Every structure is written in C-alpha cells, then in structure tokens.
Amino acid sequence: MSKRTTIWAALVLTTILDGGPSPAADDPAVLKDLTAVIALQGQPCGQVVTATKQGDNDYIASCQDGSRYRVFVNAQGRVVVQKQ
Predict the structure, then answer these.
(1) pLDDT band at 56 (very low <50, low <70, confident <90, very high)
(2) Going by C-beta distance under 8 Å and a sequence separation of 6 or more, which residues neighbour residue 23?
(3) Count of C-beta atoms within a 10 Å radius of residue 44
(4) How many domains does the chain have?
(5) Among 58, 54, 62, 64, which residue's Cα sits nearest to residue 80?
C-alpha cells in the first residue's frame, strides 16, 4: 500500500475515533468510514453493517459478507486492520 493511502486511512480513522463527541458505533457515518478503511487496506468486506467500540481508536467491524475485522491505530500511529 502506498504511503499516501496509509496516511489517508489514518486520517479518516482518526477523524472517526477522535472527532468530537463519541458517536454510537452503529452511526451510519462511522460504518461508512470503517468500510472505506477496510477497503483501503485491501480486505474483502463489502459493507460494514455493525461496529463495536473496544476502546480509543479501536473497533470490531462486522461486514455484510460475514467477516469481522479489528480496526485500530497502533502505537506507531498506523491504521491496522486484522481479520478476526
């Protein structure tokens, strides 16, 4: 993945996770942004249908195809998408 794409994904996820009051995890905007982050990381998903906030900068996203991913920002500030 290019550095530009990684930076963009990090900015999107940071905006989702730190932008203003804490939105509900199933907020349509949050689900859409998580869908974009997962796609940018090259993982199959289709669309995120539910998300559970695990902590700061840390979500479990469930996709319409049945797959689940942990989406978080690691200690180095990089967005990480791990298949669950």
Answers:
(1) confident
(2) 29, 30
(3) 11
(4) 1
(5) 58
